[in-house]
Design goal:
β1 and β2 form a beta hairpin. It is built from six helices and five strands; from the N terminus they run ββαβββααααα. It is α+β, with helices and mostly antiparallel strands and 157 residues long. The longest helix is centred in the last third of the chain and has 16 residues. GO terms for molecular function: 2 iron, 2 sulfur cluster binding; metal ion binding; oxidoreductase activity. It comes from Sphingomonas pokkalii.
């Protein structure tokens, strides 16, 4: 039995400890917001927050993360009020939407650890791939999310 906390709820999985976290979340917990993209850790679609760090759920085994705290897109903010979610919506960033949960999670970790990220900080901190090409608006949206998180007024006010 593998035990840890997912979205502030204790969970235990009666699965092989080598099972990727991605499949435990999606198949056993029905948390399907964490997406399967490549399975090799290259795309970032499965990014979750594990103990305050952006990690790839396809590369983490449930046995390796026993005792940790995992936050998925469903647990970040059920009402979409998180600053990253607000900024992504305001920037009309979502196109097909497949990569967005992983990007939101990576960005949430980034702005929690860096309250004023530069363009370079964002490019380094968000390695996620997007086939729709949202990158030109992504940097501005994450900087806006950081502004919202800091409580700074909007530039146009």
């Amino acid at each position: 039995m593998t035990r840890f906390t997912v979205n502030n709820q204790p969970v235990q999985y009666d699965m092989d400890p080598q099972t990727p976290l991605l499949w435990a979340l999606r198949d056993a917990s029905n948390l399907t917001g964490t997406k399967y993209g490549c399975g090799t850790g290259d795309c970032g679609a499965c990014t979750v927050d594990i103990d305050g760090a952006a990690r790839l759920a396809c590369r983490e085994t449930i046995g390796a993360i026993e005792g940790t705290f995992v936050t998925t897109i469903e647990g970040l903010s059920p009402d979409r009020s998180h600053p990253v979610q607000q900024a992504f919506l305001a920037a009309n960033l979502v196109q097909c939407g497949y990569c967005i949960p992983g990007m939101v999670m990576a960005a949430a970790v980034l702005i929690r650890t860096n309250r004023n990220p530069s363009e370079e900080d964002i490019r380094q901190g968000i390695p996620n791939l997007c086939r729709c090409g949202i990158y030109p608006r992504l940097v501005a949206a994450i900087q806006d999310a950081a502004r919202i998180a800091r409580g700074d007024p909007a530039d146009d006010q």
